[in-house]
Amino acid sequence: MTRWTNFLRGKGWRFRPIQDETTSMEDAYIVHCNRSDLNTQYGYLTNRTSTTKYSLWNFLPRSLFEQYRRAAYWYFTAMAVLTLSPFSPYNPISVWLPLIFVLSLGIGRELWEDLRRGRGDREVNNRPILVHSSDGRLEEKKWKLLCVGDVVKVMDGDYFPADLLLLSSTGPEGVCYVETMNLDGETNLKVRHALECTWTVGARDDKVLGGFEATVRCEGPNASLYTFSGLMELPDGQSYPLGPPQILLRDSSLQNTGSIYGVVLYTGHDTKVMRNSTPPPSKRSRVDKTLDKLIYAMFATLLTLCIITGIVLGVRTKREGTDVWYLQPLAYGNLFFNPERAYVAGVVSSVSGLILYGYLIPISLYVSLEVVRVLQALFMMLDIQMYDSATNKRFRVKSAGLNEELGQVDTILSDKTGTLTCNQMDFFRCSIAGISYGKGMTEVEISAARLRLPLGEGIHGPPDMEEGSPSSDIHRTFTDTDSESSVRASEVEGPSHNHYKEKGFNFYDSRILGGNWVGEERRDGIQFFFRILALCHTAIPEGSPESPSSMRYRAESPDEAALVVAAKQFGFFFYKRTPTTLHVRETHGPGAEPVDVKYQLLNVLEFSSARKRMSVIVRFPDGKILLLSKGADSVMLQRLDPQNRGYATQTTKHLQEYGEVGLRTLLLAYKVLKEEEYQAWQVRFTEARAVLGRERDIRTEDVAEEIEQGLSIVGGTGVEDKLQAGVPEAIDRLARAGLKIWVLTGDKVETAINIGYACSLLRPGMENLVVTLECDEARAIEENAQRSHLSPDDTLKALKNLVAQNIKDALHLVLMTSANPRMTETDELKAKSSISFTGTLSRSQSRNSGHMSRSPSKNNPLSRNSSNGLQMTQLSPIIQTGHGRKRSESETLAFQLENAGISSGLPPLGHGHKRSASDTLAFQLENAGVCRKSEDVKGAKNLSSGPQVEHALIIDGQSLAFILAETDLQEQFLRVCINCASVLCCRVSPMQKAQVTNLVRKGLGHRRLCLAIGDGANDVGMIQAANVGVGITGVEGAQAAMVADYAIGQFRFLERLLLVHGHWCYRRISLMILYFFYKVCILGWISFYSNIVAHFSGQPLYNDWYASFYNTLFTAFPIMVVAVIDQDVSAAQAIKFPELYRAGQRGEFFNAKTISWWLLNSWYCSIIIFFFPILVLGLGAFRSDGQVAARQDFGQAMFTGLILVPNLQLFCALQYFTWIHHVAIWGSICTWYIFVIVFGSLPPKWSSVAYMEFVEVLAPAVSYWLLQFLVVVAALLPSFACRSYLWMFQPTDYELVLESEKPGAQTAEESRP
């Protein structure tokens, strides 16, 4: 059974089950090197790969299986089968042909996509590679012919054909460089080095390969790209541990290396890259899910009509069967009208009605939706405004089925580094031996100066410092008079005008630049600090050692590259790396001759997200062995020698200050190792690396932990990651659009808060709620636990209770004072949104007219705020203002109006009189001039009854860990976050990012959507867990973009993606679905009426080919054009008025109300279309010879109205028209007339009753043309009248925008008294 299930899923039998990664020596994966014939006994896969879904023999059944995953196709197939019965009202061909056409389109698309995949597979499988043959020569083979154990030669720039074990390299000491962009999207080079025992294999003579043999025992095939464990056993009995540095993965490429020799370990679908080739999680849009429910409702309606048809015909047959003698009810084989078998007549009539009314379920809607979404995606990708010239990357759509979701996003979860920032790190400040170095202002400081915000108070209070210290300017409160001058001064004396500046280095301090550090009092400590920068890393130099300015470094992260560049600028130029040595050219003072120093590299303890540090063990030229380490201060401080903390206090203080101004900080430390101590540790480390499976990583980290203790502090670094262009403006507009923005970052709380202000995520006047365990209360709990000797479990329980109380207090605070509580959708919320939008529109009109009383601008962001202080609430529900007192009701309202940019303009009151808050708001709305109705003002008065402010929640990773472990805390945390305008999660791990996203997605429910955006591999889990995932192709690589639903070049493009394209796509898709059901319901109702007139016999009044082409030829093209290019507002208006986006959040375009309206309108139009021809054509003679209208005359005249009304109905639903709209609408109408002329001219055998019907009967009759005019006017008049009434008295937001943008609107506004 499993084999057949795999067959239907397209797996066939070529895939093997994934082996457990914890492989023991007994059941290890065994490879005989250079003896592929011995490996055949294990049944390893060939190296042929296939990414296709289908094969020649399973294509048809599986492609049909894929199509029939839609329930509607099963229904239409059943209907088509029923048309083969003798009582079918339609010709089977007229039903089967559209079904086959729709299925063929879907199957054709599957075939086209699979052929493209197959073409790529053939290209890859037939690539050439040099393989060592049994006779000792190298011969060229195709990739697909490789076997496990083969020895291959790969040249510089070529891709690795399988997962290889590196044997030797033309590089020094077996080193080669690998680019893994196709695996993880990272463009920086990785170092791989062979075991010393295999360095000489094939290095000088290829014939030496013939005598090489070895046995590799390693873990089985698995999907982990970053882990590997194994042993190589040589014929002499010696064993050597293998790890990731010896593995070359398929689809990565060799760079900057002449050639390498490697042994094939894993082939084909056993390679790690193929094991990672899993489909992304299936995501369906909310509109699609609502569409499913609507389909079920229509199917229920269809069944109801069929049951009514059967019951009515059965009852009438029982009572009146003998009276309709002309129908021969008692004739043999007559299933209708036989009173003796009335129940049979009822059942047959029900089945006939099921076919007749079947057009209530629009099969063409699914195909139309797919086509429209693809065209929408194409237009989005062609948007030049979303092209990133810096990276030469266009916007990409990978999940077009989620286009409409972009217009309904409620919450954005964003990474910070590389997403909000450029991920271009610049060395900016440093602390050495307790002294801070570095001048100039960071981007956060400049923003604070312009916003007149104090920095440094944070959550710990202002630090004490000496006046005139290099960091004292960080903690100043800027005033109006000195903010701009201080910015200009910093630019003159800071790093903006220094010739040492280069990519990665934006540091300026004359005390230590240019070799001046030799004159400092603590020069020995400074020199050692620079040496650590030059030695403690895994960077790869690229360039000539004779030209330091042209040297570039390939590092695992931009932070690391910036530190190596800083060492170069300070005179410690790292220029060469081998597996065992590091070469540094040191300059000890101004004018001194550079000295080349070689350091022996003994071990590298690599960085990981769990360790949060990296270390190297280096033997200095004098023979001393030192462990050099750098990492996060939270981790490094725990590993300092308690007896020799040195400059820990001063350095920690400086790093805190650096974090408060937005810098990324690292702490540098060292440890001197005795020879005996190191040798004993090296034995344990080698034993740990020889273990197979996951246990290897655990034991290796434990051994590394042993030696990384008792460190001595040297200093710290501050690296700046600048914000991307346009991020503050984009976040500000997204917030005005009603989007809740969360930032999930690994930065410290202080760093996150200040960057939050710099990018407008946090705004002056916003109440900041901080939940952190880096506070006095948490420290008191830990100190008390130590004094009382409490167990770790009791301590954790006390800390969890503290977090729970903080969350409870925060929830109480936000529910009492939040400006926009979000737990339920109420009329008050809609009124608030209406008021906010009205105020925005009023300000826009004022700006256009030149009479704006206050003009917010980019140069004066504080013009929207009345508070100069940084509001902060930590672990307490007390509301604070800039002056430490609680606002009054009227002050709160005035602040809100000021925040909205609306000048009250109130006339002065007499002395001693106080104006109420509701009067203030009412006056302001009336003064805006665009209030919808008086009820809005009344609602505004009711809404302003209490103090309401926006809140922001800042929480750290430790607190978040407690919350994610408790269901009750998760619910309270989510309620707090939903009612906050912004959320910052600090010190979070990649796993916590995914967990938080899952929590948000589930907590918001199906009515609200969350979007995740990131740029790195650590954001993949978050992106896949969200309703919509957006990846940024940035410095960290393209892995996030590869798994995302949409890929952009910079964060600022998200604004246009959501506010413009998202808004448009949601409205277009909603209108398309509603229109489809509108027009098919008209046809369905008319079919029901015609069946009533036909005595429920199932005989339609019109030719069945008319109905077959109704949804595909006569009415489909106009709505598809609308769904692709329609715009309710222009792109500029959507950006100018971001509040328009809230319509999608509220689901205004596709909800029960709009669905009911369109269905009710379809019922009304069906009555007009059906009964008007009966009234007009049935009053008397229809032809010139006195004949009355026949059944086919009624049918075709009625069907003409069925074509005209839906097509012309679009004119009542749109206000944006182009020549394309007109061509589509009038062209569809003309297509109908052309069809009836051409079809009617066919022989009667094919055209039946439609033969010459239009040319000879309808066209000459004046009553026919009069009828169509009456039908169109009567059917569309209510829609036109209703829309006109709503536009005048209850306009929507976008209608207000359109009115305000009209040329006469500004003049009318200015003429108002």
Automatic annotation (TrEMBL):
Give the active-site positions: 415
Under the heading Pfam families, the entry gives:
Cation_ATPase, PhoLip_ATPase_C, PhoLip_ATPase_N
Membrane-spanning ranges: 71-87, 93-112, 294-315, 342-367, 1073-1093, 1105-1125, 1163-1182, 1194-1216, 1223-1242, 1262-1281
List each copy of the P-type ATPase C-terminal domain by range: 1041-1292
Q: Which residues bind Mg(2+)?
A: 415, 417, 1015, 1019
Question: Could you tell me what this protein is called?
Answer: Phospholipid-transporting ATPase
**DNA-binding: is it a keyword of this entry?**
no
What is the species listed in this Swiss-Prot or TrEMBL entry? Ceratodon purpureus
Major site of localization recorded for this protein = membrane
Subcellular localization is given as: Membrane
Question: Per the database record, which ranges form the P-type ATPase N-terminal domain?
Answer: 31-95
- Record has Transcription as a keyword: no
**Family matches, as InterPro entries:** ATPase_P-typ_cyto_dom_N (IPR023299), ATPase_P-typ_P_site (IPR018303), ATPase_P-typ_TM_dom_sf (IPR023298), ATPase_P-typ_transduc_dom_A_sf (IPR008250), HAD-like_sf (IPR036412), HAD_sf (IPR023214), P-type_ATPase_IV (IPR006539), P-type_ATPase_N (IPR032631)
Polar residues bias located where?
833-870
Named from the GO MF annotations, one term is: ATP hydrolysis activity
Q: Where is this region: Disordered?
A: 460-497, 825-870
Query: Record's family?
Result: Belongs to the cation transport ATPase (P-type) (TC 3.A.3) family. Type IV subfamily.
Q: Which residues bind ATP?
A: 415-417, 560, 607, 630, 664, 745-747, 987, 993, 1018-1019
Which PANTHER family does this one have? PHOSPHOLIPID-TRANSPORTING ATPASE, PROBABLE PHOSPHOLIPID-TRANSPORTING ATPASE
